[in-house]
């Protein structure tokens, strides 16, 4: 099956957070509070793919209030924080949404993402992922995690589906 056909099957885009939606660095205040930094381009990408009718979600090993706030602000439907073992959760998400692996795209960046990346229909990794993880991917972003990689991946998927121009028409008039 070619990439365009795979992309057309996608109904849910799942993402890791640290190293994908963020640069992977951990920032803490003097009081020990965690600070997350997000790229607005990734936020636009999430809204864009939602507008195309594709649900969005995250599976992250970490859990933080700033992260939860940002995900809710973006309207992310599947929010799963504090999960290091992502595969059992993926299976639960599939059952609940009546989806198959082929209908899932996942953006990851590290070894903990490998079990999910190896099963989904459209595995994507960020450019600064380890080489072994890159070998699993159908697409490797040019951007690093936290630097617009999600937006790039979304535009790539929508282009493969033949929907990108339609989705951007409003902005490019």
TrEMBL record:
Keywords: Hydrolase, Lipopolysaccharide biosynthesis, Magnesium, Metal-binding. It catalyses: 3-deoxy-alpha-D-manno-2-octulosonate-8-phosphate + H2O = 3-deoxy-alpha-D-manno-oct-2-ulosonate + phosphate. Substrate binds at residue 18. One of its GO terms (biological process) is lipopolysaccharide biosynthetic process. Its cofactor is Mg(2+). GO terms for molecular function: 3-deoxy-manno-octulosonate-8-phosphatase activity; metal ion binding; N-acylneuraminate cytidylyltransferase activity. InterPro entries: CMP-NeuNAc_synthase (IPR050793), HAD-like_sf (IPR036412), HAD_sf (IPR023214), KdsC_fam (IPR010023). Mg(2+) binds at residues 16, 109. It is an enzyme of class 3 (hydrolase). Gene3D superfamilies: HAD superfamily/HAD-like. Its EC number is 3.1.3.45. Belongs to the KdsC family. Homotetramer. NCBIfam families: KdsC-phosphatas. This is 3-deoxy-D-manno-octulosonate 8-phosphate phosphatase KdsC. The lineage of its organism: Bacteria, Pseudomonadati, Aquificota, Aquificia, Aquificales.
């Amino acid at each position: 099956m070619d990439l365009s056909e795979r992309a057309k099957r996608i109904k849910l885009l799942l993402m890791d957070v640290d190293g994908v939606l963020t640069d992977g660095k951990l920032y803490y205040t003097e009081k020990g509070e965690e600070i997350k930094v997000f790229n607005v381009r990734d936020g636009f990408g999430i809204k864009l793919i939602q507008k195309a009718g594709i649900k969005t979600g995250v599976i992250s090993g970490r859990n933080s209030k700033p992260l939860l706030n940002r995900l809710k602000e973006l309207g992310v439907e599947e929010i799963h924080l504090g999960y290091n073992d992502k595969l059992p959760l993926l299976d639960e998400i599939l059952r609940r949404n009546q989806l198959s692996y082929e209908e899932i795209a996942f953006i990851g960046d590290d070894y903990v993402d490998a079990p999910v990346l190896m099963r989904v229909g459209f595995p994507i990794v960020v450019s600064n992922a380890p080489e072994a993880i890159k070998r699993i991917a159908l697409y490797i972003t040019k951007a690093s995690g936290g630097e617009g990689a999600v937006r790039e991946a979304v535009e790539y998927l929508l282009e493969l589906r033949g929907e990108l121009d339609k989705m951007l028409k409003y902005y490019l008039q």
